Automatic annotation (TrEMBL):
Residues 141-150 have a biased composition (Basic residues). PANTHER family: ENDORIBONUCLEASE LACTB2, METALLO-BETA-LACTAMASE SUPERFAMILY POTEIN. Residues 210-220 have a biased composition (Gly residues). Keywords: Hydrolase. SMART domains: Lactamase_B. Residues 26-289 form the Metallo-beta-lactamase domain. It comes from the Bacteria. Pfam families: Lactamase_B. Residues 139-160, 196-269 are annotated as: Disordered. Residues 196-209 have a biased composition (Basic and acidic residues). One of its GO terms (molecular function) is hydrolase activity. This is MBL fold hydrolase. It comes from Streptomyces nigrescens.
Length: 385
């Protein structure tokens, strides 16, 4: 199968690896040349066509699969980590991931049939989901108990941790890990601390691939940022609760104050992470979906404004007590609620809960006492004039 490959110059390529039956279309897997051999940043969805495309893409970049030295995973989602096990088996490459997402992978592998659905049924019932919606999960739960193997059991456990702020051991390159929780608890961006190829050859006598490819004039900013799903040019990444049947499951930094369903604050994490990325001021962003782009700071400002506007709208909706489900139904999405598919409604409720959690942390919303076994409701705090 052919592969859509872009040479970004300076020893960096992107390979568009398809995601079956998904409007995103593909994951942009990046290949980074190092003095020890090429390294992949993410691997793509575990699907035969995706695998064939990835292999063809590595070949189009001028390498064999067996040349691969390592795999850096931005986060644990299957369109990023799905093919990692196959790549490791075929090449012997190590896999690295932030410890918080490795913990998610470990829980997924250890899950027994029905455990995840038990959690989801309880979570959605507490959020006020109607009986008809929860009934479909109960039916799936009965089938799962009958012996169907839960998805994700074969996902690869990483061999190494990616530590925040770490300059990764990649000879000939300067690639630094930036912890950017929000989309997942262990999401990382990777900052290539080298001059952008468009800047032309370096003038300070340093060597390296950053000056390869010349031409195009100086770009503002420094280096290139592999942003995963954290920073995308035209999509707002999903920010929901950090899902963990055994606990709250998020970074330890968000561990204070009452909030719906636990103590972590994924939206707060995400907004803080956006500010961190903006301060890096990369010359170019190489995301995992859509296309490369410049002006990271401008895109960060757009995303922060989007979430501020959404939080303001939710405060207005919460003049009356609402369950997370009722709030999700009233929120604005990319289509009317009645047209949102079943599984996507679960995701929407998680996003509503993440925004609720942020408002509770800010002291702008509080939980209203609920009847025994009834769903939780939340209402805006009435501030004194």
């Amino acid at each position: 199968m052919g592969a859509q490959v872009i040479d970004h110059k300076g020893g960096v390529w992107s390979i568009a690896v398809p995601i079956p039956d998904n409007p995103l279309g593909h994951t942009l897997v990046h290949l980074l040349e190092t003095d020890r051999g090429p390294v992949l940043i993410d691997t793509g969805w575990d699907d035969p066509d995706s695998w064939d495309t990835l292999v063809a893409g590595v070949t189009a970049c001028g390498f064999a699969l067996t040349d691969l030295h390592g795999i850096l995973i931005t986060h644990h989602h299957p369109d990023h980590h799905g093919l990692s096990a196959k790549v490791r088996e075929a090449s012997g490459a190590w896999i690295a991931m932030h410890a918080a997402d490795t913990a998610v992978v470990r829980r997924t592998r250890a899950a027994v049939p029905g455990e995840w659905l038990d959690y989801l049924i309880t979570k959605l019932s507490t959020a006020g989901a109607p009986d008809a919606h929860v009934a479909r999960l109960r039916e799936a739960h009965a089938k799962r108990r009958s012996g169907h193997r839960p998805p994700g059991r074969e996902v690869a456990l990483p061999d190494r941790d990616i530590a925040p702020g770490e300059l990764l051991d990649l000879p000939g390159r300067r690639l630094r890990a930036i912890w950017t929780p929000g989309h997942t608890p262990g999401h990382v961006c990777l900052h290539l601390e080298e001059e952008h190829p468009a800047a032309g050859p370096r003038q300070d006598g340093e060597t390296g691939r950053g000056g390869d490819g010349g031409g195009g004039g100086q770009r503002p900013g420094f280096g290139r940022l592999f942003s995963g799903d954290h920073l995308l040019p035209g999509i707002t990444p999903h920010i929901g609760l950090y899902e963990d049947p055994d606990g709250d499951g998020g970074p330890t930094r968000s561990n204070e104050g009452e909030s719906p369903g636990g103590a972590t604050d994924p939206l707060g994490d995400y907004l803080d992470s956006l500010e961190r990325v903006a301060r890096l001021a990369p010359a170019e962003v190489l995301p995992a979906h859509q296309h490369a782009f410049t002006d990271a700071g401008g895109r960060v400002r757009e995303l922060i404004a989007h979430h501020e506007e959404r939080l303001s709208g939710l405060r207005a909706l919460l003049r009356e007590p609402l369950t997370p489900w009722e709030l999700a139904v009233r929120m604005e999405w990319n289509r009317p609620w009645e047209h949102i598919p079943f599984a996507s409604r679960n995701i929407a409720v998680s996003e509503a809960e993440a925004h609720l959690r942020r408002l509770v942390k800010l002291g702008q919303v509080e939980r209203v006492e609920r009847a025994t076994d009834g769903p939780a409701r939340y209402q805006a705090v009435q501030l004194n004039p």
